[in-house]
Design a protein that fits this description.
Length: about 625
């Protein structure tokens, strides 16, 4: 992760934001167009009023011709109304765009997460980086949002400076008459140059001070990383429905509050933020305000002295004071925006460090032809695998062939490598040694989406969505209702479906509908199994989705599933041997290796084998126990 204190050059500031500009434009077209239009309109519209008011006052103080005054007055009112209208409309448009921008910028991260190698998604560093980016955004808007927001300020600053410069030129060029005596010094080019320098310096001073304050704030953001994490974890504890019972039972809110209070960024002891606000942040911000007050004073002084000496009329005083103040203000806006963009750089570095995580898995292009005979054969050839960053092998020299249409079981104690085996089969990871072949060809050579289409896996920790039941089953908004219904009935959900108020259209859970239906763990499992059936893939895998059930209930579900799997190749994973004894072939995993293979009877016959030992160790759970009276 980059450090916030790394040196930041203007070149890098420009380059990284140019890249952000292109990325944001792709996700949210028109976002910058509306920024430029609104920024320019907001900056330029006051000048029209300033200019026309000056003309009116000059006419009132001079010839007072009604033929000139009336059109000027009408023009001033009409243009003020029109500009207010246009700026107001642009502001609305910008606000709508902002809402769209906030949603779209999240898609950048969601798309990256979806396209990333699974091995990277699994890494703690990836999650740290992502949550760091989210925290910087939530904490002080750093990242894409800050860039977009400041882009508008840059447009506003540039347009404002241009407009003010046009209205101010004559302030410096109109000479004081020779009769003004000592005041003719104001006409000297050297004096004018000095004055412009002094004005520019004072105008720059304010935003520079503000930028220093911003730098300190950015540093505090870095120091507050841990506090922010604590806040993210404990701040919303009570909102988590799933934790409701635990929180009440063990009074967890008290301990959450303790951590929140000791780690709060607003806590004097734990955080540098309050100290920095009282100290450097406060002092620099105050100096910034002070500099702009001095600047306004200087401008008034110069304009009034020049008017006093007779260089221009009283109306022009309004114009020049207004224009020069706006010039200084817009210079300030521009300098401050550039400074903020500079302090945004470290946060953009984090964003691009995340977005640039490379895809290292080879992506093949072969298609897995849709075979009506489902003659797909998968083979593990001497496969060994270690998780990234781990020194121990999760799988070692695994050789297995799936025979088409058969029922295969993968059993073994927890941690023996069963889930890892499935993850490799689904190519969530590539093995470091050996090959996995589909119909004799390395699975890496296939198009990944095509390959994934061959598998339906019901994972241990499957998740359903707060969406209508049918959409959950089909994974789509438009789906074949008859097939979805059949899948649910086959999965044993038929009776429950019949009692659901809106059948397939019944909303699951209550997040988005008051009349949503909460389903039990067992019912959720059936829906997950129906989802796998609806996909109708040639391989169907149950990876202990029944872990929460007792061994007998699990065995019943697995046996029933056997009936509905039809011509599919079904793979059952479990650490409970009783669930899988009906399978054609059972592979026993132990410490990442396949140590035994065969049917239940064959394996049980080997009295020295692991299967025999495990079977007898577990037998108490699924063989009827003699009652105390019988014993
Ligand atoms: P099982 O499914 O049989 O319970 P797993 O395949 O989940 O076993 O785990 C096999 C081994 O790999 C275990 O030692 C486990 O600690 C390790 N392991 C599992 N997932 C990861 C991971 N994401 N990173 C590192 N090690 C892991």
């Amino acid at each position: 992760m980059t450090s916030k204190s790394d040196k930041i050059t203007m070149r890098e500031t420009f380059q990284i934001h140019w890249r952000a500009f292109k990325d944001v434009r792709r996700y949210c077209p028109g976002a910058f167009g509306v920024s430029i239009l609104y920024g320019a309109a907001a900056a330029l519209s006051p000048y029209v009023t300033v200019y026309l008011s000056a003309r009116i006052i000059n006419e009132l103080a001079g010839a007072r011709r009604p033929g000139v005054l009336w059109p000027l007055a009408v023009l001033a009112v009409a243009s003020a109304a029109a500009l207010t209208f246009v700026t107001g409309a642009l502001l609305r448009w910008k606000t709508a765009k902002e809402a769209q921008f906030l949603e779209r910028k999240n898609r950048v991260f969601a798309d990256k997460m979806m396209s990333m190698d699974f091995a990277d998604i699994d890494k703690t560093e990836t999650h740290d980086l992502r949550s760091q980016i989210a925290q910087s955004e939530n904490w002080a808007g750093f990242g894409f949002y800050r860039f977009w927001d400041q882009f508008e300020k840059v447009a506003q600053g540039l347009a404002g400076i241009l407009g003010a410069a046009v209205l101010t030129v004559s302030l410096f060029t109109l000479p004081v008459p020779a009769s003004a005596g000592v005041f003719t010094v104001l006409n000297r080019p050297a004096f004018l140059a000095l004055l412009v320098l002094a004005l520019a310096f004072t105008a720059a001073l304010g935003p520079l001070c503000d930028n220093r304050a911003m730098d300190h704030l950015a540093r505090c953001a870095e120091n507050s990383r841990f506090s922010n994490r604590v806040f993210h974890c404990f701040g919303f504890l009570a909102d988590d429905k799933g934790r409701g019972m635990d929180i009440r039972m063990y009074d967890q809110q008290k301990i959450a509050r303790h951590y929140m209070e000791t780690e709060s960024v607003f806590n004097d002891r734990a955080s540098s933020l309050p100290r920095a606000c009282r100290g450097p942040i406060g002092v620099w911000a105050a100096l910034g305000s002070c500099a702009s007050a001095i600047l306004t004073g200087l401008i008034y002084l110069f304009v009034c002295v020049k008017a006093w000496a007779g260089a221009f009329g009283v109306g022009s005083i309004t114009q020049y004071v207004g224009a020069v103040s706006a010039l200084a203000k817009n210079m300030g806006v521009l300098i401050e925006a550039l400074g903020v963009l500079r302090s945004n750089v470290p946060f953009m570095r984090d964003i691009y460090q995340f977005l640039d995580i490379p895809n290292q898995m080879y992506q093949g292009s072969l298609t897995t032809e849709k075979r009506s005979d489902r003659q797909y054969e998968v083979e593990f050839q001497d496969v060994s695998f270690r998780y990234p960053g781990s020194s121990t092998w999760a799988l070692r020299h695994v050789n297995i062939k799936f025979r088409i249409g058969r029922r295969m079981a993968v059993v073994g104690e927890n941690g023996s490598g069963k889930t890892t085996f499935i993850k490799l089969l689904c190519r969530l990871y590539d093995p470091q040694e050996g090959h996995i072949l589909l119909n004799g060809i390395d699975i890496r050579k296939y198009n990944y989406r095509d390959y994934m289409g061959l598998f339906s896996v019901v994972f241990q920790d499957f998740q359903l969505l707060a969406q209508p039941l049918g959409e959950n089953v089909a994974g789509a908004r438009n789906y074949d209702r008859d097939r979805a219904q059949k899948a649910l009935v086959d999965a044993g959900f038929g009776d429950r479906l019949a009692s659901m108020p809106a059948g397939l259209d019944t909303m699951l859970y209550k997040e988005f509908a008051e009349d949503g239906v909460d389903v039990s763990g067992g019912e959720a499992q059936k829906i997950a199994i129906a989802r796998a059936l609806y996909k109708d893939a040639p391989f169907i895998i149950l990876d202990e989705p029944t872990a929460a059930l007792d061994p007998i209930a699990e065995a019943e579900i697995y046996a029933k599933f056997n009936d509905i799997a039809g011509d599919k190749t079904a793979v059952y994973i479990s650490h409970r041997l009783s669930s899988c004894k009906f399978c054609d072939e059972i592979a026993v995993f132990d410490h990442g290796q396949v140590i035994q293979r065969g049917t239940h009877e064959q394996l049980l016959a080997d009295e020295a084998g692991k299967y025999h030992a495990l079977w007898h160790a577990q037998a108490q759970y699924y063989t009827p126990q003699p009652s105390p009276a019988e014993a």
